[in-house]
Amino acid sequence: MTHPGEMSCAEFQAHLPELIGSGQDMSNHPHLRECELCRALLADLQTIADAARQLFPQEEPPAEIWDKIESALKSEDGKEESLPKSK
Ligand SMILES: [Zn+2]
User: Fold this and answer.
1) How many domains does the chain fold into?
2) What is the pLDDT of residues 28-51, one digit of tens each?
3) What is the rounded CA–CA span in Å between residue 45 and residue 16?
4) Which domain does 72 fall in, by range?
5) How far away, in angstroms, is 38 Cα from ligand 1 center?
């Protein structure tokens, strides 16, 4: 039995860079409410994102920041899968 709206960590993490990039509030995300692991991961990524904003206060963080976040996610996951680039 699967619960509606429930997603796996891999699915959630695949969407993390765009969720962070969009700047939306994720504190009420159903996956985060149930998953300690992804909460910790998100905190790490937000630290990176905050650092990027301090480095580039006048501009959007460059795309390579999100590439680094994606790389970090892949290394956390331990497998190399290429995420589809959405522009
Ligand atoms: Zn999770």
Assistant:
1) 1
2) 888 999 999 999 998 898 888 888
3) 9
4) 36-77
5) 4
